[in-house]
C-alpha cells in the first residue's frame, strides 16, 4: 500500500499513529502485551500509549519497576514462552541498561538454541532532542544494535511508518527495535484507518533527483527533505532516501540512486564513527554495481557529548541549512552559497514548544 | 524400565544419570572429541534432581552454563545433549550451543546462558507468560551464588513478587565464583534473610539433606501452582571439579581439600544409593550405563553440520 492510496485515510500525528498501531496489533493478537515505565499513566508516553489501558486492561498494559535489565529479560522470556511483548522506553539512552539482555539473549536465542526458540518482541524507544535534553536523553544508538545479527532496527520518520512499522514489528518473529524521535511526535501524515504493515528492508525514495543522493536516518530525512527543497531553488535536484529500516537495510535502493547521481550524502541521527553512515558508505565503496567512483560525504552529530544550551546544541546537530550547504558543495564543488536561516526552519521545530 | 519403588530410588536414578553423564564427559574430554567448554556439577546434582522431581512436562526449568543436571532432570534428551557437546548436527541446538546453552523446549528446558544471572529474568518472563496464558504450570530457575550478586537477581525477585508469578528461585550456593570464595564477595552471608524481605517464603539448607530439600520444594511448588506467588531456596553445596574442565583442582590452592572431604563424605549419589535394594540399584545403574553409552555412540556416529548451514537460524521466519 502506498502512503496515499487508502480510501479510509485521514491525517494523524506520529504519536497517534504509534498508539493506533499498537491498538490494532493488540486487537489482532491476544498474545500481545505492552509494558514499560509510565505507559499507563496520565501522560501515556506523550500520548503514544493513550487509550490502550482502557481498551485492554492492566493485564496487558502495565508499568514496570525501574529495572530495565531484568524487565528486558522478562520480555524475552515471555516471548520465548509464546507471548508477544512490546517493551517501551521513553528514551533510547535507557537501552544501555538493557544491552546485556538484548545482545546476549534476545538477538542470539534463535540461533544459539538451534532454531528451537523464537523471541518475538518489540522494543519501543524514543530519541530526544532540544529543550535541554542533553547528554543522556538525546543519543541515537541504532548502530550499536544494527551491529548485532539477530536484531532488527527500524526508524520511522513519519506517522505513516510509525503505525505500519509498529504493526509489522509485532508480527515479526524476531526482536525488533523501533527507534522513534521525540521531535516527530507532533508531525502529521495521512494514515489509513485499517491495520497495515510497512515492509522491513524497503527504503523509500522521498524525492527523486539526478544531481546527488541524500540518505537521511530518522528525523534527519525530514531535515534533508527541506534541504532538498532549498537546493532545488538553486537548480540542484537531490534524490532523498529514507531507509525506513536500518537493519535489514535496503542497500539496493541506495546503490541504484548513487549509480545514477554519482554523489552521496548520508545524514545520520547519530555520531559518524563506526555508525550507520560509515556502513552505507562502505557498502557503496564495495559496490560492483556503481560504475563510477562516487563522491561521498557524511553528516551527523558533532563528535562531542550533546550539550544542553541552545547555542552549542545548534552546532551539534545537522540541520536543513548545513545539510543544504554540504550537498551544494558536493554537487557543485563550490562553497559560495548560504541559504537564508529563517527559510531553513522545519515546521515541526518552529511548532514545538516542549516540555518533554 | 519399571517404576521406582520409592522416592529415594527415583531421586537416585535422576542424580545417577547426571553423575554418570558428567563422569563420562570428563573421561572423554581429553580426547578433544567434545568441542565445548564443560562446567561440571558433580557433587551438586541432588539439588536439581530433588526440586525438578516435582515438575511436569509443561512446567519450565531454567539452568545455567553448569546445566547438564537441570537439562537431564527435566527430561532433556541424553543423545541430543551428548551430540551437542560433540558439536554434531543432532545436538539439542544443532551444534550451535555446546555445553553452555543447552535447551529442550519440548521438555520445558529453558535455554541456558553463559552470562551469569542472565537466565533469571528470562525465567521470570516464562512465569509471566504462564500467568497471562491462564495455565497452572510453574517455573523453577536455578542459579549459583555468584548470580545473586547481579542486579537482575534482585530486580527479578521484586518483579516476580510484585506480580505473584509462579516461579521458584533456587540458589545452588557452592560458595565459589570461578575461584573466588564467597567471603571475598559478600558483605554478609544472609542471602536468604535478604530475599525474605521481598515478602516471599525463603529458606536455607546448609546440608545436602536431599529428602528435606525434596519435601520442601514439593510444598512450595504446590502452593506456587495454586497462585501463591514466588518462593526462594538457598542450598549450600560443594563443587567437586574445577570451574571449567574435566579435572579436580584442590591442588590449586584457592580452596581447601578439607572442606572438600567433608562434603564428599556426604555425597548424595552414594548415601542415597545405599538406601536402595541391591536389585533396584543394579537395575537403575545398568539402565543408565546403557543410556549413556548409547548417547556417546549416537554422538560419535552423528555428522557435523555442513559449512553451508552457518547462516541458518540468524532470524526466525
UniProtKB/TrEMBL annotation, chain A:
Can you tell which superkingdom this protein's organism belongs to? Bacteria
Cofactor(s) needed: thiamine diphosphate
InterPro entries reported for this sequence: THDP-binding, Transketo_C/PFOR_II, Transketolase-like_Pyr-bd, Transketolase_C
**What are the TM regions of this chain, as residue ranges?**
none
One Pfam match, given by its short name, reads Transketolase_C
* SMART domains associated with the record: Transket_pyr
Q: Which UniProt keywords apply?
A: Oxidoreductase, Pyruvate, Thiamine pyrophosphate
Purpose of the protein = The branched-chain alpha-keto dehydrogenase complex catalyzes the overall conversion of alpha-keto acids to acyl-CoA and CO(2). It contains multiple copies of three enzymatic components: branched-chain alpha-keto acid decarboxylase (E1), lipoamide acyltransferase (E2) and lipoamide dehydrogenase (E3).
Q: What is this protein called?
A: 2-oxoisovalerate dehydrogenase subunit beta
Automatic annotation (TrEMBL), chain B:
CDD domains registered for this protein in UniProt = TPP_E1_PDC_ADC_BCADC
Q: Provide a GO biological process annotation.
A: pyruvate decarboxylation to acetyl-CoA
Q: Name its co-factor(s).
A: thiamine diphosphate
Keyword Oxidoreductase on entry: yes
Instruction: For this UniProt record, give its keywords in alphabetical order, as a comma-separated list.
Output: Oxidoreductase, Pyruvate, Thiamine pyrophosphate
Extract the InterPro entries matched here. DH_E1, PDH_E1_Alpha_Subunit, THDP-binding
Checking Pfam families in the record gives: E1_dh
**A GO MF term:** pyruvate dehydrogenase (acetyl-transferring) activity
Domain spans labelled Dehydrogenase E1 component: 16-307
Question: Is Oxidoreductase one of the keywords UniProt gives this record?
Answer: yes
Q: Which domain of life is it from?
A: Bacteria
- What PANTHER family does UniProt report for this protein, alphabetically? PYRUVATE DEHYDROGENASE E1 COMPONENT SUBUNIT ALPHA, PYRUVATE DEHYDROGENASE E1 COMPONENT, ALPHA SUBUNIT BACTERIAL AND ORGANELLAR
Q: What is this protein called?
A: Pyruvate dehydrogenase E1 component alpha subunit
Amino acid at each position: 500500500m502506498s502512503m496515499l492510496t487508502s480510501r479510509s485515510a485521514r491525517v494523524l500525528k506520529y504519536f497517534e499513529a504509534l498508539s493506533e498501531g499498537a491498538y490494532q496489533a493488540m486487537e489482532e493478537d491476544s498474545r500481545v502485551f505492552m509494558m514499560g515505565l509510565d505507559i499507563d499513566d496520565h501522560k501515556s508516553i506523550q500520548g503514544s500509549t493513550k487509550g490502550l489501558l482502557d481498551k485492554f486492561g492492566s493485564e496487558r498494559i502495565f508499568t514496570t519497576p525501574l529495572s530495565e535489565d531484568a524487565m528486558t529479560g522478562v520480555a524475552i522470556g515471555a516471548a520465548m514462552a509464546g507471548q508477544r511483548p512490546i517493551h517501551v522506553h521513553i528514551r533510547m539512552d535507557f537501552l544501555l541498561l538493557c544491552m546485556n539482555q538484548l545482545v546476549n539473549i534476545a538477538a542470539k536465542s534463535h540461533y544459539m538454541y538451534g532454531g528451537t526458540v523464537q523471541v518475538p518482541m518489540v522494543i519501543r524507544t524514543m530519541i530526544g532532542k532540544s529543550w535541554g535534553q542533553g547528554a543522556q536523553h538525546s543519543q541515537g544508538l541504532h548502530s550499536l544494535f544494527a551491529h548485532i545479527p539477530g536484531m532488527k532496527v527500524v526508524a520511522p520518520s513519519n506517522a505513516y511508518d510509525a503505525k505500519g512499522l509498529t504493526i509489522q514489528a509485532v508480527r515479526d518473529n524476531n526482536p525488533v527495535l523501533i527507534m522513534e524521535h521525540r521531535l516527530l511526535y507532533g508531525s502529521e501524515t495521512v494514515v489509513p484507518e485499517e491495520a497495515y504493515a510497512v515492509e522491513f528492508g524497503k527504503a523509500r525514495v522521498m524525492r527523486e533527483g539526478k544531481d546527488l543522493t541524500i540518505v537521511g536516518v530518522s528525523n534527519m530525512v525530514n531535515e534533508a527533505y527541506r534541504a532538498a527543497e532549498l537546493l532545488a531553488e538553486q537548480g540542484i535536484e537531490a534524490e532523498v532516501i529514507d531507509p525506513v529500516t536500518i537493519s535489514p537495510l535496503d542497500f539496493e535502493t541506495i546503490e541504484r540512486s548513487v549509480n545514477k547521481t554519482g554523489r552521496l550524502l548520508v545524514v545520520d541521527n547519530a555520531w559518524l564513527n563506526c555508525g550507520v553512515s560509515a556502513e552505507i558508505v562502505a557498502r557503496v565503496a564495495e559496490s560492483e554495481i556503481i560504475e563510477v567512483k562516487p563522491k561521498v560525504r557524511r553528516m551527523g552529530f558533532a563528535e562531542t557529548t550533546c550539550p544542553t544550551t541552545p547555542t552549542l546544541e545548534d552546532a551539534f546537530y545537522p540541520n536543513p541549512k548545513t545539510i543544504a550547504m554540504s550537498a551544494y558543495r558536493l554537487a557543485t564543488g563550490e562553497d559560495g552559497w548560504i541559504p537564508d536561516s529563517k527559510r531553513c526552519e522545519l515546521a515541526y521545530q518552529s511548532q514545538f514548544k516542549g516540555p518533554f | 524400565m519399571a517404576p521406582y519403588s520409592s522416592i529415594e530410588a527415583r531421586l537416585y536414578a535422576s542424580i545417577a544419570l547426571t553423575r554418570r553423564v558428567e563422569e563420562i564427559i570428563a573421561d572423554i574430554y581429553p580426547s578433544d572429541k567434545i568441542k565445548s567448554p564443560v562446567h561440571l556439577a558433580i557433587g551438586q546434582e541432588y539439588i536439581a534432581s530433588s526440586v525438578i522431581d516435582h515438575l511436569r512436562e509443561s512446567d519450565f526449568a531454567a539452568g545455567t552454563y553448569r546445566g547438564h543436571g537441570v537439562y537431564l532432570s527435566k527430561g532433556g534428551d541424553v543423545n541430543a545433549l551428548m551430540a551437542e557437546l560433540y558439536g554434531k548436527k543432532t545436538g539439542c541446538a544443532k551444534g550451535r550451543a555446546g555445553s553452555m546453552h543447552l535447551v529442550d523446549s519440548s521438555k520445558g528446558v529453558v535455554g541456558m546462558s553463559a552470562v551469569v544471572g542472565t537466565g533469571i529474568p528470562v525465567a521470570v518472563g516464562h512465569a509471566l507468560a504462564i500467568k497471562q496464558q491462564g495455565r497452572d504450570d510453574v517455573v523453577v530457575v536455578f542459579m549459583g551464588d555468584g548470580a545473586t550478586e547481579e542486579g537482575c537477581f534482585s530486580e527479578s525477585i521484586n518483579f516476580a513478587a510484585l506480580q505473584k508469578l509462579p516461579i521458584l528461585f533456587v540458589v545452588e550456593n557452592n560458595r565459589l565464583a570461578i575461584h573466588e570464595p564467597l567471603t571475598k564477595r559478600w558483605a554478609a552471608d544472609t542471602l536468604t534473610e535478604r530475599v525474605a524481605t521481598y515478602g516471599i517464603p525463603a529458606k536455607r539448607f546448609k546440608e545436602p539433606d536431599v529428602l528435606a530439600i525434596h519435601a520442601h520444594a514439593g510444598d512450595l511448588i504446590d502452593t506456587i501452582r495454586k497462585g501463591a506467588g514466588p518462593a526462594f531456596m538457598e542450598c549450600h553445596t560443594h563443587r567437586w571439579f574445577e570451574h571449567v574442565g574435566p579435572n579436580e583442582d584442590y591442588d590449586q590452592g584457592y580452596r581447601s581439600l578439607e572442606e572438600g572431604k567433608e562434603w564428599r563424605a556426604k555425597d548424595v549419589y552414594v548415601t542415597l544409593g545405599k538406601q536402595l535394594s541391591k536389585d533396584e540399584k543394579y537395575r537403575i545403574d545398568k539402565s543408565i550405563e546403557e543410556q549413556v553409552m548409547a548417547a556417546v555412540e549416537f554422538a560419535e556416529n552423528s555428522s557435523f553440520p555442513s559449512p553451508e548451514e552457518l547462516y541458518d537460524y540468524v532470524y526466525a521466519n
